[in-house]
Design a protein that fits this description.
Blueprint lengths: L3 H5 L32 E5 L4 H12 L3 E6 L2 H15 L3 E5 L5 H15 L4 E4 L6 E2 L6 H28 L3 E8 L10 E2 H18 L5 E8 L5 H10 L5 H12 L9 H11 L11 E4 L8
Parallel strand pairs: 1-2, 1-4, 2-3, 4-6, 6-8, 8-9
Antiparallel strand pairs: 5-7
Helix pairs in contact: 2-3, 2-9, 4-5, 5-6
Length: 294
């Protein structure tokens, strides 16, 4: 396998200050926080819809150059065009199935070849799959781990040498709060997500000396394409806000609502920024307070 370092070169394109994000209240009421990711290169798997799309848009708005991948080329291209028009950012779209080792490696290789490196990696591939244990066959176990865990392993393995040569980097693994507190009938995803959390902790300590910071964002109930699909199946005639309000109440979310993908993207943007230089090895819940774990 060709080294990404040879494609990207040492410290090529590593730059500094970004534009300030929006905050609480009006712009006149808040002090701007510069994230320092302008010119950085970000690779985001599962970037065509939902959280991946929101992260890509947020980083592009901060001046990062962004590569996104997903299986459906038409949806991917539409998303890339939307982000370009909204932010004026440089967005590369690559059709890839992250359950395939060949596609995963091609996504990373093409990103480095196009932009000259990688500074930020967001492992966001895969959808939530939960079934009773006795109903899960070997094929589903293998697919879930390939799409979620091993895609993160492969992307990370290729990104780390490039980040090291560029003086550091940021890796975010998107997981789920049930990885911390598994529930009945939550396999296989709860197992693959827990594996990603363990990898996060190990890599954070192993590569801290290289200034490569690794963190996990554990999602709770967040509005994504998966939930929209479920709404259309279960209650297509119910107003969207009413459906989410009802579902939030039934799930006992303390804040009383689902999170927005844009809110989760803000958290990711902070974690990959220069403002989070002392945060690594963490698993941060984004769940409206619904998890009982400490």
């Amino acid at each position: 396998m060709e080294s990404l370092v040879s494609l990207g070169g040492a410290k090529a394109g590593a730059t500094g200050i970004g534009t300030p994000p929006t905050g609480f209240g009006s712009k006149e009421d808040v002090m701007a926080i510069e994230l320092g990711i302008e010119g950085r290169i970000a690779a985001i798997s599962g970037g065509s819809e939902g959280l991946g799309k929101a992260i890509a848009r947020r980083l592009a708005a901060e001046g990062a150059r962004v590569a996104i991948c997903a299986r459906r080329l038409d949806v991917l291209e539409r998303t890339a065009n939307e982000i370009r028009q909204a932010t004026g950012g440089d967005v590369l779209s690559i059709a890839a199935d992250m359950s395939s080792a060949e596609d995963t490696e091609r996504f990373m290789r093409d990103t480095v070849d196009h932009f000259g490196g990688i500074d930020i990696l967001v492992n966001n591939a895969g959808t939530h799959a939960a079934s009773p244990f006795e109903e899960i066959d070997d094929e589903l176990w293998a697919y879930d781990f390939n799409q979620k865990f091993f895609s993160a392993v492969r992307c990370t393995r290729m990104a780390i040498p490039v980040m090291r040569e560029r003086g550091g980097g940021r890796i975010i693994n998107i997981t789920h709060v049930t990885a911390k507190a598994p529930r009945p009938e939550s396999l296989p995803t709860v197992a693959s997500r827990a594996a990603a959390m363990a990898m996060t902790k190990t890599l954070a300590r192993e590569f801290a000396a290289d200034n490569i910071l690794v963190n996990t964002v554990c999602l709770g109930a967040v509005k994504t394409a998966q939930w929209e699909k479920r709404r259309l199946e279960q209650a297509p005639d119910m107003p969207v806000d009413d459906w989410y309000e009802q579902l939030s109440a039934s799930r006992g979310i303390p804040l009383g609502r689902f999170g927005d993908a844009d809110e989760a993207a803000d958290l990711v943007a902070y974690l990959v920024s220069e403002r989070a230089n002392y945060i690594t090895g963490t698993a941060i819940n984004f769940d409206g307070g619904s998890s009982w774990t400490l």
